[in-house]
Amino acid sequence: xxIRPRGNMRRGTIETLTIASDDVNGTLxxxxxxxxxxxxxxxxLLVKEVEGGVETRVQVSPTGNHRSIETLRHQIERLIxxxxxxxxxxxxxxxxxxxxxxYGTVI
Length: 107
Prior knowledge:
It contains 3 helices and 4 strands. The protein has 107 residues and is α+β, with helices and mostly antiparallel strands. The chain has a domain at 6-12 and 25-88: 2-Layer Sandwich (Alpha-Beta Plaits). It has a 4-stranded antiparallel beta sheet with strand order 2-3-1-4, covered by helices on one side. InterPro entries: ACT-like_dom_sf (IPR045865), ACT_dom (IPR002912). This is ACT domain-containing protein.
């Protein structure tokens, strides 16, 4: 089964962000909401417990043209309980290589 791009999404454009945050209820939901509000789709999400919080690796792809990953990174960084957001080098890995967390689980 192939993944077909929706709208003006460029094929193969997947960006990976690593987000360190406190382990607080609702933080993951706020991160997901900011991503969607800024015109990006969450392709996959991986959460791992680390000392004093959680580390989230999220793969996103744009829903249209002229979407800046740096703008998205700054918006997520401004959220309460988020310690830092690191943009990984461009990744063309398929989301199937990640452990998926469905939207219904986040909300």
